[in-house]
Amino acid sequence: MPYQSNNFFQEVYEVVKLVPRGRVTSYGAVAAYLGAKNRARMVGWAMNNAGSYPEVPAHRVVNRSGELTARDHFGGNTMAERLTEEGVTIKNNRVQHLKQVFWDPSVELL
DNA sequence: ATTATGACTTCAC
DNA sequence: CGTGAAGCCATAA
Q1: SS3 state at A17
Q2: Between chain A's N and C termini, which has fewer beta carbons within 10 Å?
């Protein structure tokens, strides 16, 4: 297993695993919760590495606009299907009603 | 050491 | 919300 810049990756996984079913969060939100809002890209990297962690629901992590950027990494429409299955409405590769399904750790987990 | 790249964000229009 | 530019940071070559 490759390097893990610290427990940063671990922290990311912890938070992502706490995302409730039918809700989504963003890389920036997680990063912010970890006290590194300018490290959103690294959260993405952590997710990339998370491919080895089935327990991490990476499909519930989208970008700030609710766009399913991870779609390509999941392959096919796996992500969209899975989210839809959980009750999240997906349209044109984006989460609908984002305001309702968005889950911000720095708020919900406060 | 330097350049390029990316599962991002924010600001301006 | 959409597009384009700039900022930020770890990894890869």
Answers
A1: helix
A2: N
